[in-house]
Design brief:
By secondary structure, the protein is an alpha/beta fold. The chain has a single domain (35-174), classed as 3-Layer(aba) Sandwich (Rossmann fold), CATH 3.40.50.1820. 35% of the residues lie in helices and 14% in strands. It is built from five helices and four strands; from the N terminus they run αβαββααβα. It has helices at 11-24, 39-50, 117-120, 126-144, 162-174, and strands spanning 32-37, 56-62, 97-103, 151-155. Strands 1-2-3-4 form a four-stranded parallel sheet, with helices on both faces. β1 (32-37), α2 (39-50) and β2 (56-62) form a beta-alpha-beta unit. The N and C termini lie far apart (47 Å).
């Protein structure tokens, strides 16, 4: 298996862009938040799992089609088997503020949903897959006695719609705590 270096990963580009903006526009913020819907959510949750950004504050992954489970049972992108197994899992990932955000009505197997055998092992739709992913992370950290900063949140009366998810995700990212 080939060893990958952080400067070769797409993930590191996010930090580079952030640092360039901070410098060019003299921005006082030292952290950023990230949101992704559907395929973007696949990127965001993997960003949290595989890249330890010192600048990331909060992340919201909404309605991903598939997930990288904390498991040796499947190869990447569905699991860790071909990445060195669970020894490749960084406990730091569970300390990041990740919200797995699911639309309660995202249960349709539309033409955009990955319906391979590997994907269907995660669940038959995006809502099931997201719930199973979060549950699998909870089970993993419980076995390892690692604290989990992640949250699972759902949006009622919504399906696979970024138009519905994005405003609610903005509230998760930027609303003042009560």
């Amino acid at each position: 298996m080939r060893q990958y270096y952080e400067d070769e990963m797409t993930f590191s580009i996010i930090d580079a862009i952030f640092k360039a903006f901070v410098q060019k526009f003299d921005i006082a913020d030292h952290t950023y938040n990230i949101y992704g819907h559907s395929a973007g959510a696949q990127f965001v949750h993997r960003f949290v799992l595989f890249y330890d950004s010192p600048y990331l504050d909060k992340a919201v992954a909404a309605n991903a089609g598939t997930y990288t489970f904390i498991s040796n049972k499947q190869d990447f992108p569905y699991g860790y088997r071909n990445l060195g197994g669970l020894s490749a899992v960084s406990n730091k990932a569970f300390q990041k503020k990740l919200v797995v955000f699911l639309a309660e009505g995202d249960t349709i197997r539309d033409s955009y949903l990955n319906v391979t055998n590997e994907a269907d092992r995660q669940g038959s739709n995006r809502f099931e897959r997201g719930n199973h992913f979060f549950q699998s992370a909870e089970n993993y950290v419980a076995r390892k006695n690692i604290p989990l900063q992640w949250q699972l949140r759902t949006l009622p009366n919504a399906a696979h719609s970024n138009r519905r998810m994005a405003p609610a995700a903005a509230d998760l990212l930027y609303a003042k705590p009560e």
